[in-house]
Amino acid sequence: MQKTIISTPKAPAAIGPYSQAVKIGNVLYTSGQIALNPETMEVISGGITEQSKQVLDNLVHVLAAANVDMGSVVKTTCFLSDMNNFVDFNEVYATYFSDQPPARSCVEVSRLPKDVLVEIEAIAIVKA
């Protein structure tokens, strides 16, 4: 199977040796998205609500670069720097996945890149 690298300037550029997403067959794997403004590559200001919105907006743009939408996401892995933010994170997350949400894991980690509060990666099915 052919491996296709997905990249878009509408989401933050990779800050290491990885791709924004990789498509193999009809499956798309995204790298973790964090709360970076894609134009400035700086962490946005605000708390978990603002950062969650930015992360999910970045994810939307990476998916769109592969002609996929949020409805095609089958699994997410969500990393929170503090599980006390879970309720506020969930409120934002639910607005992006209101109908038939994907399977999900959500874990607290000790630290995330650039000391952000949240990171999300996704697996989606690419429609033919």
Q: What key attributes describe this structure?
A:
128 residues; alpha+beta; 60s Ribosomal Protein L30, Chain: A; 6-stranded mixed β-sheet; globular
Q: Secondary-structure map with pairings?
A:
Blueprint (H helix, E strand, L loop, with lengths): L2 E4 L14 E4 L2 E4 L17 H18 L7 E8 L5 H11 L6 E6 L9 E8 L3
Parallel strand pairs: 4-5
Antiparallel strand pairs: 1-2, 2-3, 3-6, 4-6
Polypeptide structure, described:
This protein has 128 residues and is of the alpha+beta class. It has a single domain, classed as 2-Layer Sandwich (60s Ribosomal Protein L30, Chain: A). It has helices spanning 48-65, 86-96; strands at residues 3-6, 21-24, 27-30, 73-80, 103-108, 118-125. A 6-stranded mixed beta sheet has the order 1-2-3-6-4-5, covered by helices on one side. Helix 1 (48-65) packs parallel to helix 2. The protein starts with a strand and ends with a strand.
Q: Give the oligomeric state.
A: single chain
Shape: globular
Largest sheet, if any? 6 strands, mixed
CATH superfamily: RutC-like
Mean pLDDT: 97
What's the quick description here?
By secondary structure, the chain is α+β, with helices and mostly antiparallel strands.
